[in-house]
Design brief:
The complex is a heterodimer of chains A (about 110) and B (about 110). With about 110 residues, chain A is mainly beta. Helices cover about 0% and strands about 50% of the residues of chain A. Chain A has no helices and eleven strands. In chain A, strands 2, 4, 5, 6, 9, 10 and 11 form a seven-stranded mixed beta sheet that branches. Helix content of chain B is about 0%, strand content about 55%. By secondary structure, chain B is an all-beta fold. Classes of the chains: A mainly beta (about 110), B mainly beta (about 110). The interface between A and B is medium-sized, with 26 and 24 residues.
């Protein structure tokens, strides 16, 4: 079946602009996660949704970052007033439910802020 | 101290060699443990879960030592296709989020 998909695959934006990154999880997966991976580092947790609600947003670095999942399926990560330090690969993962189930990752969106 | 620590490598080994990776974690409340594999410019993929009793999947063996907060991965008879970055991953259980190490890069050569 279809895996996790993310769009766009690459995004180049200017400092100060607003960006939206989209994640389409595996059908039927109630848990959805966003991670950020910088070069030479492991993925870093940003936010976790169980259904429509954000169950844990402790990894969001500041209030420029926001994510939604209004219908419990597709999620959008929104970054306002982008900074060069936001440049990274943003990975989305989904699982059947939360704890204990394998997380399946999408291919990521490579964000470059110039 | 980082939550999950790994030797970044790279480990350069010839085909057929046995190689071992180690990882330590700081949160004694951690419940679930994994090794993920990540190829260059690709997403992480689950290689195997790690259980207290140890587990084996073909050429791969994972061990967990809760007392020492230590996880290991052993790869026997290395193949060229094993070349990748191996990420040690810990789930705190209650938080449902994964904490990743920085990864250990393996390069298997002819």
């Amino acid at each position: 079946g279809a895996g996790v998909s993310q769009t766009p695959s690459n995004k180049v934006t200017e400092k100060g602009k607003y960006v939206e990154l989209r994640c389409d999880p595996i059908s039927g997966h109630t848990a959805l996660y966003w991670y950020r991976q910088s070069l030479g580092q492991g993925p870093e947790f940003l936010i976790y949704f169980q259904g429509t609600g954000a169950a844990d947003d402790s990894g969001l670095p500041n209030d420029r970052f926001f994510a939604v999942r209004p219908e419990g399926s597709v999620s959008t990560l929104k970054i306002q007033r982008t900074e060069r330090g936001d440049s990274a690969v943003y990975l989305c993962a989904s699982s059947k439910t939360g704890t204990g189930y394998e997380q399946y990752f999408g291919p990521g969106t490579r964000l470059t802020v110039t | 101290r980082k939550e999950v620590e790994q030797d970044p490598g790279p480990f350069n080994v010839p085909e057929g060699a046995t190689v071992a990776f180690n990882c330590t974690y700081s949160n004694s409340a951690s419940q679930s443990f994994f090794w993920y594999r990540q190829d260059c410019r690709k997403e992480p993929k689950l290689l195997m879960s790690v259980y207290s009793s140890g587990n084996e999947d073909g050429r791969f063996t994972a061990q967990l030592n809760r007392a020492s907060q230590y996880i290991s991965l052993l790869i026997r008879d290395s193949k060229l296709s094993d070349s990748a970055t191996y990420l040690c991953v810990v789930d705190t259980g209650t938080a449902s989020k994964l904490t990743f190490g920085t990864g250990t890069r393996l390069q298997v050569t002819l």
